[in-house]
Design brief:
The chain has 15 helices and 18 strands. By secondary structure, it is α/β, with parallel strands linked by helices. The chain starts with a strand and ends in a 6-residue tail after the last helix. Bound molecules: adenosine-5'-triphosphate and ligand LCNOYBR7. GO terms for molecular function: ATP binding; kinase activity.
């Protein structure tokens, strides 16, 4: 019987959350969608969906299905995981999914805690910061699918929901669990059902987790999981040793985030690298992939990187001529097909950059669940999985996570 049932709105976010749950002492498994079989001997289950950027009604339906399944696994506390940069639009999907989960669980209030201080995401007076800049000045305002143009989480959430949004301030949270619990109750009494929590440092995550002990549902980035260990008396897990790694090493990046761009620039000095042009894919999909495959196969003896060309003018051009969704889907399909073509050539270690991109690749490789292993950087663990193509060490990297040298350093961790 698992204790904590989690629903993640993308696959990199799922492994990020699973990683923090393991750090908090929970034996954790991540499943890709609702699985056919129930995991055994686990404290926490993360059901990873690809529901961040789909129509809100579909995201709600998939999330409720995951919730129903997690309830049958005996979970008593539920956690809706979304991005630490609150990726969503005025139509959703964070607000509608949270309100649907609240209704299904019969809870009158929940909290919204996207912060993850170790990766620079903090919240103050309800405004989300990335490092020392506001969310809407961090580059996230240019995100191809979910441009984040306002750092006020209260305003953002208000546009997506029916309930009343309130902010639980850092001045209260720093006074500890009792003060925070009282303020939560006061906000609820005043009719606030959706409560955005400030968070400046990890200690605040523990305070928030303890003060929300009675809430059946919490929502947030992965940071809050670092506080949840304090709620349960017998954390048991240690980060699992993964089977020995071997085989070729490949990085597939479809992420358009600033940090991925820095990592690609760093990798350029150290490994063969090739860009994927959406216009060329549109002109002749198969021929473009054939050319990349022919380039890659003789070079698979050491790590190599294939990435989508995300220079703003290229993305703009592709989006204008093909449409935002269609151009994104085209690039995802190309990277997923390259993954299936190249793992056939004895790839044993794969890093994927980008949540949507990871979703497409994980599905194409027929992956059902992942074991969480050692962390490369905050929020990015190595995982091990049995794919349709054989065993695979895989790291799913969220767009803005990982140090600039992650693509060259990651391999040492599983040597
Ligand atoms: N040149 C391009 N033109 C159009 N769309 C692109 C281009 N390059 C990448 N994309 C699309 O942009 C989206 C990037 O989303 P993805 O979630 O993979 O990365 P991210 O947003 O940086 O990461 P995360 O969601 O983990 O923060 C994908 O759908 C991808 O296919
Ligand atoms: O919370 C985060 O930032 C990540 O896990 C993620 O979901 C980015 O796509």
């Amino acid at each position: 019987m698992a204790l904590i049932g989690c629903i993640a709105d993308d696959f990199t976010g799922g492994t990020d959350l699973a990683n923090n749950l393991v750090k908090s002492g929970f034996r954790t498994v991540q499943t890709i969608g609702v699985p056919d079989t129930a995991p055994e001997d686990v404290d926490a289950i993360v059901v990873a969906l690809k529901s961040r950027s789909i129509p809100a009604a579909d995201a709600v339906r998939q999330s409720l299905e995951a919730l129903t399944w997690l309830q049958t696994q005996g979970c008593e506390k539920f956690y809706f995981k979304y991005c630490s940069t609150f990726d969503s639009t005025a139509k959703g999907n964070i607000g509608p999914v949270a309100e649907a989960l609240m209704a299904a669980l019969g809870c009158d209030a929940t909290l919204f805690c996207p912060a993850f201080p170790a990766t620079g995401r903090t919240v103050y007076h309800g405004y989300l910061f990335v490092g020392d800049v506001l969310l809407n000045e961090s580059g996230m305002e240019h995100h191809p699918l979910n441009p984040m143009t306002d750092a006020s989480l209260a305003r953002w959430l208000d546009a997506q929901t029916r309930g009343r949004v309130g902010v639980l301030g850092a001045d209260v949270i720093k006074r500890g669990e009792q003060a925070t619990r009282r303020q939560l109750a006061a906000l609820r009494d005043a009719g606030h059902t959706l409560i955005v929590t400030d968070t400046l440092r990890d200690a605040h995550l523990t305070t928030i987790a303890l003060a929300s002990r009675d809430m059946p549902l919490v929502t947030g980035g992965s940071g809050l999981a670092l506080g949840l260990g304090a709620l349960y008396s017998a954390p048991t897990s240690e980060v699992a040793a993964l089977p020995e790694a071997g085989g070729g090493a490949l990085i597939l990046a479809g992420s358009a985030s600033n940090r991925t761009r820095e990592q690609i620039e760093h990798a350029r000095q150290h490994m063969p690298i090739r860009a994927l042009d959406p216009e060329a894919l549109h002109r002749d999909f198969s021929a473009t992939l054939d050319a990349i495959e022919q380039w890659a196969v003789p070079r698979l003896g050491s790590p190599l990187l294939i990435h989508s060309d995300t220079r703003p003018e290229i993305v703009r051009k592709a989006q204008q001529s093909l449409g935002v969704e269609a151009s994104g889907a085209l690039v995802e399909r190309a990277l997923a097909e390259l993954a299936t073509r190249l793992v056939e050539h004895d790839i044993g270690r794969l890093i994927v950059a980008g949540g949507e991109t990871s979703g497409a690749i994980v599905r194409a490789l027929g992956i059902g669940s992942q074991r969480i292993g050692p962390e490369i950087d905050p929020g990015v663990p190595w995982t091990w999985t049995e794919s349709d193509f054989g065993p695979l060490h895989m790291a799913l990297k969220s767009g803005n996570f990982g140090a600039p040298d992650m693509f060259t350093r990651a391999w040492e961790i599983i040597e």
